[in-house]
TrEMBL record:
The protein, known as: Helix-turn-helix domain-containing protein
Any one GO molecular-function label of the UniProt entry: DNA binding
Entries under InterPro entries matching the protein: Cro/C1-type_HTH, DUF5753, Lambda_DNA-bd_dom_sf
Taxonomic lineage: Bacteria, Bacillati, Actinomycetota, Actinomycetes, Pseudonocardiales
Gene3D superfamilies: lambda repressor-like DNA-binding domains
Amino acid sequence: MPSPASPVVAGWELALRLREQRERKKIEVSAITSALGFTRNYWSAVENERKILSEENLVAALDLLEFDEDERPELLDLRLAAKERGWWTQYGTLLDGDLQRLIGLEAGAERIRYYESLLIPGMLQTEEYTRGIMEPDGTIRPVDVDQRVEVRVRRQERLTGEAPLRVVAVMSEAALRQQIGGPAVLRRQLEHLVRSIEGNRAGLEVRIIPFTAKACGLFGAATIHLLDFPGDRLPTVMFQETVTTRDITFDAVRVAEISNTYESALERTLSPQKSLEKIQQCIEELD
């Protein structure tokens, strides 16, 4: 089943297919700008998702780029989808461009593979656990905390409903023991995690790297998301975040390196069942 439409993913796919077709047909940018009356900067903006062509101009570009007839309806549909506004744009004063782009990519992803060293992944957090992370940060105003929690809850809607997101979450045992918000908050968070696993075994796989693991290629990383998309047209995208940096990369070499490291790390985790038992053990120890 295809993932829900996302304006961000639609715009990305449209720009990517236009650029790839131009390169495949060995058509120079100057030929396009001359034929369609665009400046080089304008066409660059089209290929880099900063501009969406009008329907008339897109049809003309499809002719010039020699797209097959059966592809054209898809591309015109992508244009319409790209012009929609995702719900996350309502929070434009709260979320910077990278975060809005990340949420837009999440909205159209088929699967996300997460790694967290010290925290439960955001898609699996309870509201009070999320507040426990944000409220001690003196740089976030209380009203912004409320809105950020609201955004987090909206993002979690991808886990249910039509075409639910598939999730693989790898985390260190430390994430199960760090008492964000205090012992009671952590206990309820871990109980929520258990319910989420037991209620969605087909779509949610949680794997714990135990303290007894002697090595792991992901040690030293903070937060990693690897987003996979339906079909074979769109490549995997990587999101990385530390305390001071945030980065979305489409670079195939970097993404492949981290993907390989992630798959290697999976071999050092507990099995899904043993991971569930480890979470339950941590709950018991909080009693």
